[in-house]
Design goal:
It contains 13 helices and 25 strands. With 400 residues, the chain is an alpha+beta fold.
Length: 400
């Protein structure tokens, strides 16, 4: 086994060889709650992984370990696609050569990339749950989990293309919050959903979801960008045809708090102000926003993840047989969603897993990169950034 010093030496050598752009291998994550929707490019046989459940998520440029009870110790961690027998995770690279990967200023301020992009693909709606706010996540030594969704075009929407978000405004009033307690205590059905509102999912749209907001994502294939965490509390006892283990309600809480407060503990972890916002749709619904200064003859970029400084994301579209000059403000990773081309001379192609993901290090991102569409259809690339890299990211006007 190589020492950290030897791995660091190898990384520095590869950093020079690749010119600051690393290929990444695909990262598959299993969940045991329900079968996959079979839209990730894997066969039905490949998605079945025994006691681990089904491969229903692909994590992109990930330095976050999946918090699964059963699974390999590196589940969720992305690996650099390196020559020979080099087997190095992106997490190791970030930790061992942080200045080269993220830039000195970013590395001094952030211990890691601090964001997690993924695609999730479920055959049924995900159980009503929330992700912990910072005040609660830090009690167990974890990060909070703010997140955002984007529904790409070109995939079936599934049988339940609607997402429940938050609670009815009257439920969020202090004197009514205990309405959620009986479903949590009895733990036998899905009636907790009657206290929430559902919103239709449409391609090319999405939602921004701060931590602490209960939600039940629908069946649209979903591109997600979030803080680097896998904390959650499931509130819906019955989901996708079976009872959810009640341990998932208390998964990320202290044992002594569970014993002292019981199910009422969970109510104190919900962000009631945002969950009961009567203008939730107006304040959280997102559509692609054209970046005016990105327009070139060869293509243009759109904001698809915005309304927060914790992460951001873009969609780049390059016309057939055209070139585009890309310039960004810091480290990011990409997913090639549609088409084929050359990214700074590297072959990229959707549908070929080993040619779909790249990590562009800080210094390289800060200088022009020529991306060429060598195919006959639009080349579509998603870019993912960590906190505060894009300080010009748009914010939704708050209603009312």
């Amino acid at each position: 086994m190589k020492t950290d010093s030897e791995i660091r030496e190898n990384l520095l050598k590869e950093y020079q060889n690749c010119g600051g752009i690393f290929r990444l291998l695909p990262t598959w994550v299993a969940r045991n709650s329900m079968p996959s929707g079979l839209r990730l490019g894997l066969s039905e046989h490949q998605t079945k992984v025994g006691d681990r459940g089904w491969i229903s998520e692909r994590w992109l440029g990930s330095t976050t370990k999946a918090d699964n009870q059963i699974g390999p110790p590196d589940e969720g961690l992305s690996y650099l696609n390196l020559p020979g027998d080099l087997h190095i995770t992106l997490k190791q690279a970030i930790e061992l050569i942080p200045e080269q990967m993220m830039g000195k200023d970013y590395a001094d301020k952030h211990h890691g990339l601090k964001r997690l992009p993924k695609i999730f693909d479920m055959s049924d709606r995900i159980a009503f749950h929330f992700h912990h706010q910072e005040k609660d996540a830090k009690l167990i030594g974890r990060n909070s989990k703010e997140e955002a969704y984007y529904f790409p075009v070109g995939k079936e929407m599934g049988k339940h293309p609607e997402t429940f978000f938050g609670v009815h405004p009257y439920v969020a009033q202090k004197e009514n919050r205990s309405l959620l307690l009986p479903p949590l205590i009895e733990w036998k059905d899905d009636r907790i959903l009657k206290y929430s509102r559902a919103y239709q999912q449409f391609p090319e749209e999405g939602f921004h979801v701060p931590a602490g907001i209960p939600h039940a994502p629908g069946t649209a294939l979903t591109l997600e960008l979030q803080e680097d965490s896998d904390v959650f509390a499931i509130l819906q006892a019955y989901s996708a045809g079976s009872i959810v283990p009640k341990s998932y309600l208390f998964k990320d809480t202290l044992k002594e708090d569970q014993l002292k407060y019981g199910e009422a503990l969970i109510l104190d972890q919900i962000n009631w102000e945002l969950s009961g916002d009567p203008f939730f749709y107006e304040n959280r619904h997102t559509t692609p926003q054209l970046i005016s200064d990105s327009i070139q003859d060869g293509g243009q970029e759109f904001w698809i993840f915005y309304n927060t400084m914790k992460f951001s994301g873009k969609k780049l579209m390059i016309h057939p047989s055209m070139k585009y000059e890309s310039l960004d403000k810091g480290v990011y990773n990409i997913l090639v969603w549609q088409g084929q081309g050359l990214f700074d001379g590297l072959e990229i192609k959707s549908g070929v897993f080993e040619k779909e993901e790249l990590l562009i290090t800080h210094e390289r991102a800060m200088h022009p990169i020529i991306i060429e569409n060598t195919g006959k259809e639009e080349l579509v690339i998603f870019k993912f950034f960590g906190p505060e890299i894009n300080i010009d990211v748009p914010m939704i006007k708050t209603y009312p």
